[in-house]
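Consider a protein example.
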Amino acid sequence: MNPNVQALSRARASLSDIQRPSRAEVEAAVRTIIRWTGEDSERDGLRETPARVTRAFEEFFAGYGQDPVEILRKTFEEIEGYDEMIVLRGIRFESHCEHHMAPIIGQAWVAYIPNGRVVGISKLARVVDIYARRLQIQEKMTAQIANTINDVLEPQGVGVIIKASHHCMTTRGVHKPDTDLVTSRMLGCFRDNALTRQEFLRMAI
């Protein structure tokens, strides 16, 4: 097994070893936050809010319980020698900034050039979702997606571009609502070959 894939699997196992608070503890924490705002956590409109927030957080951060390596393991080799670029464009995602837990809303463009095998295209979208559904910074998420695809599929190259709006700066702080952040990660032939990189960029944004 690729040593990088082994490292990814170990990282996944270490995440599962983290001792998580109980649901009751999480709901109690939400009640504390509600009271901190100056509200009454027991009034009718807020009484069920702690349970709802807890359920929402389970969805927002479901990526911690999923393994991107396993998602990419099933591949197809009957591709008639196909060795051109494969690009999945505009993969919408929702994530959360690890500094303020504010939403990050964006799209990802994922490309690779196969080396004898391909993966189902839905798996590429699922890898994006797994990493998005964790507390993140966009730079790290971009690298994680590209590195995982590169390490598991071992293609000729991988390219990932992410464009996202960060609510930690659009709805708070500097309040710049029309800004977005663009990050990219190019590996293999996408890094080494300017023509390949430009072809991907033209297909993306």
Observations:
- The mean pLDDT is 94.
- The radius of gyration is 20 Å.
- The chain is about 45% helix and 25% strand.
- The longest strand covers residues 86-97.
